Task: inverse folding
């Protein structure tokens, strides 16, 4: 497998805050990877370092085995950033022609129009007069203009309506089928699950999990055993068992999280905790993910 | 090379589509020129010399304006709208981008100079020698450099509104106090002393000298170069400070 992107022990700190903390991963040709995580988890900072817009404080980022800033790298990548970029004063067709001229093997304008859903009317409109949705489509077209081998999208579907979203993922799948590598960030679990064949789960500037969507889901949505117990009962004995991943109290109930709920039940009786009203709950994915999301503080 | 050409062409198209530019840099100077040489009669001793003098003033006024405002405001706009960031990811090198912007701007200046010169010549039938026309045109083209540097300073501002406001005020103050709207000789003594130290006065002064058959003074050249260096250093310093975040 050819590696398209490699990050080795990458850290990025802004003044006192560490936005990305010692992350390492590599992505091979043809992978569709979602960088999933709540706001402030370090997704945009990581993408900015991959694109060479930010330099890592420590560690190394390599694309196609080169530095991100090199021209040979720039010719092979296409990007759609979170902030919609518009060059005022030019019509959409002119902007497309201009950006195409930078690349050695650009896609024809006709293809760009078909792929992104821009209309003939849009092509004649000046960039500053476009609506939000049209600007998004233009950004998408600009990302594809150079017929890139690696496409990077930062929160691509924010501000898209359902039709555009559908079309967007359709196009992404077409590109993936052609063997192109795609990296996108999102804070929707559903989106990552639908579109990616690998998820990098970011939390507090580190990678909390890395694997196929099914694996990740199994990992963040854990079944648990819940029960009520007298408040003076110590839960201490449970902490010593490695099968138990987490113990917390919520709404007067104690929740014990573990992938092996049978074993938890066994332990409850063994340790004589006086547990009453015991329930076994299968993990809810979105809830688990939201929980993960809510505990993260805002960062850059 | 093709990349550079396409880039220049697009830069020029963009400036020409900019209403600010067409209004402030082409229509206003020509209108002012018409008013102050034909409608308002100032009874100058030498009608022809005054007309040539004022044509230079207005051309300088125009080029100074597009240097400060068009360039600066556009830089702020591009940064605010994420375009600058996008450009950094494309294979186009920063130097080609900057060079194309400057080349585009120069073509625009040549265009402004030509249009205003022709308009002036037609309105008042001004007779300068071919050398005088070309030399004054070149002086105005090169003399715009310190003002382009001011443009890049304006371009470091964060908000388009601030940049537009500041550059407008700066432009008008420089134009009036530099004697571009009316000769500094008719202004109070204090203003005359101040003008002696303004880049706009020396920018105009060089052109007036050429139009009256002399070479620009060394003082004109020296002051403009000094201001160019000052503004470039200042802009470099501020940029470094902004990047240090």
Result:
């Amino acid at each position: 497998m050819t590696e398209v992107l490699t990050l080795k022990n990458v850290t990025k700190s802004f003044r006192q805050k560490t936005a990305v903390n010692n992350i390492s991963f590599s992505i091979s040709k043809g992978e569709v990877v979602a960088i999933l995580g709540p706001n402030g988890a370090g997704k945009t900072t990581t993408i900015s370092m991959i694109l060479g817009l930010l330099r890592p404080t420590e560690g190394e980022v390599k694309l196609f085995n080169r530095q991100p800033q090199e021209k040979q790298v720039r010719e092979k990548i296409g990007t759609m950033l979170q902030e919609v970029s518009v060059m005022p004063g030019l019509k959409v067709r002119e902007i497309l022609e201009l950006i195409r001229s930078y690349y050695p093997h650009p896609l024809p304008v006709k293809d760009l129009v078909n792929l992104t859903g821009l209309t003939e009317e849009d092509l004649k409109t000046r960039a500053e007069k476009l609506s939000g949705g049209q600007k998004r489509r233009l950004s998408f077209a600009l990302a594809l203009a150079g017929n890139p081998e690696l496409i990077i999208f930062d929160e691509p579907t924010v501000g898209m309506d359902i039709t555009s979203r559908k079309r967007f993922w359709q196009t992404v799948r077409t590109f993936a089928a052609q063997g192109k590598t795609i990296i996108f960030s999102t804070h929707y679990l559903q989106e990552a699950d639908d579109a990616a064949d690998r998820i990098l789960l970011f939390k507090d500037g580190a990678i909390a999990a890395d694997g196929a969507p099914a694996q990740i889901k199994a990992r963040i949505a854990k079944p648990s055993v819940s029960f009520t117990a007298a408040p003076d009962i110590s839960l201490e004995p449970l902490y010593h068992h490695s099968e138990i991943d987490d113990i917390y109290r919520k709404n007067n109930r104690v929740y014990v999280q573990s992938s092996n709920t049978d074993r938890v039940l066994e332990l409850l009786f063994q340790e004589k905790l006086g547990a009453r009203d015991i329930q076994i709950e299968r993990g809810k994915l979105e809830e688990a993910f939201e929980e993960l999301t809510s505990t993260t503080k805002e960062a850059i | 090379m093709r990349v550079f050409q396409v880039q220049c062409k697009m830069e020029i198209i963009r400036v020409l589509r900019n209403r600010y530019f067409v209004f402030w840099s082409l229509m206003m100077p020509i209108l002012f020129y018409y008013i102050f040489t034909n409608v308002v009669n100032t009874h100058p001793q030498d009608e022809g010399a005054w007309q040539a003098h004022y044509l230079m003033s207005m051309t300088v006024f125009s080029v100074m304006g597009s240097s400060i405002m068009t360039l600066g405001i556009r830089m702020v706009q591009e940064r605010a709208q994420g375009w600058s960031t996008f450009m950094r990811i494309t294979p186009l090198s920063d130097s080609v981008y900057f060079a194309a912007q400057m080349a585009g701007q120069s073509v625009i200046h040549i265009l402004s100079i030509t249009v205003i010169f022709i308009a002036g010549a037609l309105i008042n039938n001004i007779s300068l020698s071919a050398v005088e026309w070309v030399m004054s045109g070149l002086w105005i083209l090169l003399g715009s450099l310190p003002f382009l540097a001011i443009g890049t300073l304006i371009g470091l501002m964060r908000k388009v509104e601030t940049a537009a406001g500041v550059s407008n005020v700066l432009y008008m103050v420089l134009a009036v106090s530099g004697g571009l709207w009316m000769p500094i000789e008719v202004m109070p003594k204090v203003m005359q002393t101040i003008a002696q130290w303004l880049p706009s006065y020396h920018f105009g002064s060089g052109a007036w000298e050429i139009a009256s058959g002399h070479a620009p003074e060394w003082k004109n050249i020296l002051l403009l170069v000094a201001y160019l260096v000052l503004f470039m250093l200042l802009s470099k310093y501020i940029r470094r400070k902004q990047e240090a975040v």
